[in-house]
Amino acid sequence: xxxxxxxxxxxxxxxxxxxxxxxxxxxxxxxxxxxxxxxxxxxxxxxxxxxxxxxxxxxxxxxxxxxxxxxxxxxxxxxxxxxxxxxxxxxxxxxxxxxxxxxxxxxxxxxxxxxxxxxxxxxxxxxxxxxxxxxxxxxxxxxxxxxxxxxxxxxxxxxxxxxxxxxxxxxxxxxxxxxxxxxxxxxxxxxxxxxxxxxxxxxxxxxxxxxxxxxxxxxxxxxxxxxxxxxxxxxxxxxxxxxxxxxxxxxxxxxxxxxxxxxxxxxxxxxxxxxxxxxxxxxxxxxxxxxxxxxxxxxxxxxxxxxxxxxxxxxxxxxxxxxxxxxxxxxxxxxxxxxxxxxxxxxxxxxxxxxxxxxxxxxxxxxxxxxxxxxxxxxxxxxxxxxxxxxxxxxxxxxxxxxxxxxxxxxxxxxx
Length: 416
Hints:
Helix content is 45%, strand content 19%. The protein is α+β, with helices and mostly antiparallel strands. The chain folds into two domains: 1-127 and 272-408, no CATH class; 134-248, Pdz3 Domain. Strand 1 and strand 2 (55-70) form a beta hairpin. The longest helix has 35 residues, at 262-296. The model has no long low-confidence stretch (mean pLDDT 90).
C-alpha cells in the first residue's frame, strides 16, 4: 500500500510539474500581450472548465501533461482570427518569443532549484567528498564493520556452512571500533590496515590496538584465509591472503545539511554536478537503446538505462515505501532538470526547436539586410514537417521502449 501511495504521489508531482511548465508559457505570453485562448491540464475529453477573460481553463480526462494554446505560434497558423493578428505570437520580437518558449524549461529549473534548497536545509544533500574510489576509501580511518564470516574467494556472496568465522568477531571487536595498530605497526587509515594484513599470512596471530568510544583497547586473533587480487591491481590474479573479517565504516558523512544561507552555495554546487550529469546522460541515450532491448527481451536490466515517467514513478514509490525521502526528492529534482534541458534541444516540436528557428530568422534577416537583399521572411514550418515527424517517431519509439522496459523489467533500488 505504501508503495502504491508513493507511486501516486510521485506521478502527481510530475503532473504538477508539467502543468506548471505550461503555466510558464501562459503567464509570460500574457505578460507580453500575446493572446492565450486555452490552458488545460491533461488531454482528451474535457472534464471541467471555465472561462475567465479570453482564456478557457480546465481539466481533461487523461492526466498525461497539459497544453497552452497561444494564438499564432507560427506564421503558418491558419486559425488566427483577423482581429487577433496584431497579437499573434510570431509578430512579437524574437527576444519576447524566446522568453515565452523557454519559460516552460525555466519553470522546471526553478522547481529543481527550490527542491534542492529545501533538501539542503532539511534532508541534506549528497556529500561530494564521500569516498567512492579505492584511493579515497583507503584514506578513511580504519573504523571497522564486522563480517559474519570470511568468504574464501573474491566474489561476494552470503556466508555458507564451512566458511571460517570472522577473526575480528572472535577477538571481541565490535562495529565502529577503530584499529590503530597491527603487531605494533601504527595504522592511520584503512589502506594501511589492508597493507599490514597483507604483510601477514593466514594462521598468523595479529595483535591489534583499537579505540572504542574514545577508550583504547588491545586484543589478538588468528587470521583466516581468503582469496584476493593484489592491492595495486584489483583486476589481477587472486591468491591466498590473510583476512581479519572486517569491512570499512566510512566516517565521512554521506550527506550534509546546511543553514538557509549556506544552502544557496550548496544548491549551486549540486546544480552544477546535476547539469554535467544530465548532459552526459543525454549523450549516452543512443548507446542505451540496445540495453533497453536486452532488458525487454529477458536480459538483466542495466541500472544506467533511461527510465520513463512510469519507471520514475515506480522508483518514487519504492523510495516512499522505504522512507528514503532524499531519494524521492532527488528523483523529482533529476526528472525536472532533465525535462528542462531536453525541452531546450533545438529540434521541433520541442520548445528549443521553436527558439532555434526564431533566432535563425532573426540572423538571416540581419544578414540579408547587410548584403542589401530583401528580407526572406519567416521560415515555412510546413516544409519542416517531415523532419518534425522523424523526431516525433524517434521520440515515440524511444518512449515506448523505456515504458515497456519499466513495466516488464523495472529498475529496483531496494531488495524485496
